[in-house]
Amino acid sequence: MLGIDEIARKLPSVLFVTTTNFIEAIDEAFLSRADLVMHFALPSAETIAKILQHALEELAVQWPALQPLAKEKEQIGALAALCEGWNGRQVRKLVLAALAQRLEVAKDPAQLKFDDLREAARKKGGVEWAGDAAPSSKELFPDVPEHLKHDHDHGHDHKTRRMR
Fold first, then answer.
1. Helix, strand, or coil (residue 2)
2. pLDDT, tens digit (0-9, with 9 covering 90-100), for 39-70
3. Burial (CB count within 10 angstroms: exposed 0-12, middle 13-18, buried 19+), residue 99
4. How far is CA 158 from the centre of its chain?
5. Which of 51, 30, 55 is nearest to 109 (CA)?
6. How far apart are CA 131 and CA 48, in angstroms?
7. Separation in Å, CA 19 to CA 6, 11, 125
8. Is there a contact between 161 and 151 (Cβ–Cβ < 8 Å)?
């Protein structure tokens, strides 16, 4: 707070702009220094549908096979209803999460389906690991030279070690 007060005193023409999706975490002392506080509502289902459509259209530029998805207004509207209460960032990231739901879609985004989008929405934009346990780094990279390996159980303090 002292830093903000100091800058405001020395440089009165400086404009601070801050944003948050978690207003409850903002200190009252910080808010009291603001000349203007604007609250924006979460996007409506209609706005969510527009965000999803735009994200799909952007994806279709790179993968033209996805153009029909971006034109499915009814399916996009139903998907938007699943995302009510989400902020804009969460909605935009839903498409990215959907791309990671299935390995074949991650390898070829042109295979994205509304089922992938609905599954990602069901998981609130998260991705669940499906299948066997992920391989260990030793299994993935068996030929790493010994001098490059880092054993976490060798007695030094990680807080003071610097990587170069």
1. helix
2. 888 999 999 999 999 999 999 999 999 999 99
3. buried
4. 29
5. 55
6. 32
7. 21, 21, 21
8. no
